[in-house]
Amino acid sequence: MKLIIDTGIIVSAAIKKSSVNRQLLLMPLFDFYLPEYALDEINKHIGKISVLSGLTKDELAVLFSVLAERVSLVPASVIKPHMNKALGLIGHRDKKDAPFVALALAVGNDGIWTNDKDFAVVSEVRIWTTKDILNYLSA
Predict the structure, then answer these.
(1) Total domains, the chain
(2) C-alpha atoms less than 13 angstroms from C-alpha of 39 in its C-beta half-sphere
């Protein structure tokens, strides 16, 4: 299964040591895609993530490098042609979510994995929550 992942999934995987999200991110059944810009978002909040996780910035760097091996970063040049449509679909809720929708429109995938309720307004792309993925795996 090919899934676009929201930044919140990665942050959640870092913050909670026994995170289901972390376990799912490491499963070889999935191919994950992330807009390249999301790394900037994560780096902007690395101090807060460090405090919440109890991990040092160096420990987080190691964790993120392991997770990064499971994620394909997609450059802005691939996403950009789809940004206007994505902004029309979700920009009224949160403009920061538009690159994830644009990525879903740009590459073949099975949907976006997020626990962010703002994505519920996007009907053109399948939205998966962590619970949805767990249900899929148990079916």
Answers:
(1) 1
(2) 15
H-run or E-run covering 9:
helix 7-15
Digit-coded pLDDT (tens) for 13-55: 888 766 798 899 989 999 999 999 888 888 888 889 999 888 8
Token code pair at residue 24:
């799912």
What whole-number distance in Å separates Cα of residue 16 and Cα of residue 130? Answer: 14
* Closest by CA position to 2, among listed 76, 132, 104, 117: 104
Tokens of 13: 């995987």
pTM: predicted TM-score of the whole model, two decimal places? 0.91
Domain CATH for 17: 3.40.50.1010
